[in-house]
Design a protein that fits this description.
This protein is mostly helical. The protein is 70% helix and 0% strand. The chain is built from six helices and no strands. Helix 2 packs across helix 5. The model has no long low-confidence stretch (mean pLDDT 75).
Length: 113
């Protein structure tokens, strides 16, 4: 992951602030956001492959990750589940960036449930 400075965090939308969800979610989200808006090929290739092909490709990847979570949950080793859930969350963040949804909005939605 690319380390972010406070200057890098200024690239985020103004309404995007730290909330009670894990701070590293902000860091990963900011990294994805920065790599996508900078439109360079120096970032993670998966981001460019997914983001460049639009929502359908991102959703396809999320579906694959969901299936992998189900399969991992059937196996006795919890490490596999952690790995697959992490992949799913990462790809959810790619979708969030594409749709302009922040962790703050997700946290607010969860707080209403």
């Amino acid at each position: 992951m690319i380390p972010l400075s406070h200057a890098d965090l200024r690239l985020l939308p103004v309404a995007y602030t730290l909330r009670p969800y894990p701070v590293y979610f902000n860091t990963i989200y900011a990294t994805i956001y920065k790599q996508i808006i900078s439109n360079t090929q120096n970032g993670t290739p998966a981001i460019f492959l997914l983001f460049g092909k639009g929502t359908d490709k991102i959703l396809q990847k999320l579906g694959e990750e969901c299936t992998e979570i189900v399969i991992a949950a059937k196996n006795p080793e919890p490490e596999n589940i952690k790995y697959e859930i992490s992949d799913f969350l990462y790809h959810c963040m790619v979708l969030m960036v594409e749709k302009g949804i922040t962790w703050e909005e997700i946290a607010n939605e969860l707080a209403q449930r």
